[in-house]
Amino acid sequence: MLSMTRIGLAPVLGYLIIEEDFNIALGVFALAGLTDLLDGFIARNWASQKSALGSALDPLADKILISILYVSLTYADLIPVPLTYMIISRDVMLIAAVFYVRYRTLPTPRTLSKYFNPCYATARLKPTFISKVNTAVQLILVAASLAAPVFNYADSIYLQILWCLTAFTTAASAYSYYHYGRKTVQVIKGR
Prior knowledge:
This protein is mainly alpha-helical. The protein has helices at 2-18, 22-45, 52-75, 81-105, 112-115, 129-151, 157-180, and strands spanning 123-125, 185-187. GO terms for molecular function: cardiolipin synthase (CMP-forming); CDP-diacylglycerol-glycerol-3-phosphate 3-phosphatidyltransferase activity.
């Protein structure tokens, strides 16, 4: 339910940013972040609340939210186009790799219902350390960019430094998945 809330908040956030209603957008972003933290806290502390569907929806909700935020913040001229292109390209490549791994690890006969059934887990992607750092840096950039027009620092050199840091960690994260490839995928046996 919390992941679905985050997915539902994503287009609302995009609309608010495009309409330049940054004060409300900042509050909605904080709410989306709270749902993510609460979702993770519940999954870690109450095993009965953990589900295969939830573990599939959580990263999907994060990708949808981040993608919409980057596109809308770029539209509002708060994040440069090349940086958004780099981030979304990396995510598309990762998603394509996950689909490929899913296909390769699915036992025959491979059916669409089996392929898209989140309860039928065949592999788990283990994020690299730099990927975790990249996620944190991307979220910090989104928060800082969203707050920039509210607190009047949109032209700050610190924001530009954060753009460069985000570009570096995004490239390093993409390279780490390419370089470590098979080591980041754990195939689940017995399926």
